[in-house]
Amino acid sequence: MKPWLVLNSGSCAPAFNMAMDEALLEAMPRLQQPVLRFYGWTLPAATFGYFQKFGEVSAATKLRPLIRRPTGGGVVPHDADWTYSAVFPAGHEWHSLKAEDSYRRIHEWIQAAFSNMEVPTALAPCCKKVTLGEGGTGQCFVGHEKHDLLWSGRKIAGAAQRRNKLGLLIQGSVQPPPIPLERADWEKAMKHAGMALFGVQSTNLQPDSTLTSAADVICATKYSTPTYNEKR
After folding, report:
1. pTM for the structure as a whole
2. Which residue out of 12, 126, 140, 219 is catalytically annotated?
3. 8 A C-beta contact, residue 70 and residue 20
4. CATH number of the domain bearing residue 45
5. Dihedral, CA atoms, 217, 50, 178, 187, nearest 10 degrees?
6. What values do phi and psi take at 217, rounded to 5?
7. 10-residue block means of pLDDT along the chain (232 residues)?
8. Annotation marks residue 219 as catalytic
9. Dihedral over alpha carbons 180, 42, 8, 48 (to 10 degrees)
């Protein structure tokens, strides 16, 4: 069995959600265990990729606030999604994977969880691009990339990644299909699928003051500020 920590944050403010993910990445040298985090949103919001231009993003969605993620990717609406992150310390096998392989692996995990819920999904074999005229440029859930998770041909799960010397951060969003599903059941299915696929033995993480204080500082000085969110 491989020990993992699971953090269920509940619903948090948009800026704090991004700050906690970054704080977890910064805490990897201390924690030395992967963390699977589930979280929600206290109000509708949208996040966008680190390298995107704020002006283009603000025109692409009416959701506010707009928060720049620490990871790449496109615009993600957080008005009805199930959000998670997976964080790995440097030296962990996931940290050593190529970006395409860790992207595929996280979506195989989610696919297995949906399979446990008797919801058939498939990994996209290739990308499907959309043009600016179709309203899709820069939006994560319009079109799809290779290894995105599809339900009835529609993308329902995507993710973005950041690797550095501290570890690997994967931030993911699941836009649940329009069938009767409960988020709590999906989170439970994720834990079972993690054990079946990767031998994950999960233990609940109770954030200590060091972690929460770090997240509070990052939230106040970075993700809550126009200086960061609108910097390009």
Report:
1. 0.94
2. 140
3. no
4. 3.30.930.10
5. -50
6. -65, -45
7. 96 99 99 98 98 96 98 97 99 98 99 98 80 50 81 97 99 97 98 97 97 99 99 91
8. no
9. 90
* Number of structural domains the chain divides into: 1
Closest CA to 140 of 126, 128, 153: 128
Q: Compute the C-alpha angle 156/189/7, nearest 5°.
A: 90
Query: Which residue from 216, 144, 27 is spatially nearest to 224, judged by alpha carbons?
Result: 216
Q: Distance (Å, rounded) from C-alpha 213 to C-alpha 27?
A: 12
Gyration radius of the chain's alpha carbons:
17
Burial class (CB in 10 A: 0-12, 13-18, 19+), 102: buried
**Domain carrying residue 133:** 2-229
- The CA distance from 147 to 71, in Å, is 18
Closest C-alpha to 205, from 38, 21, 7, 4: 7
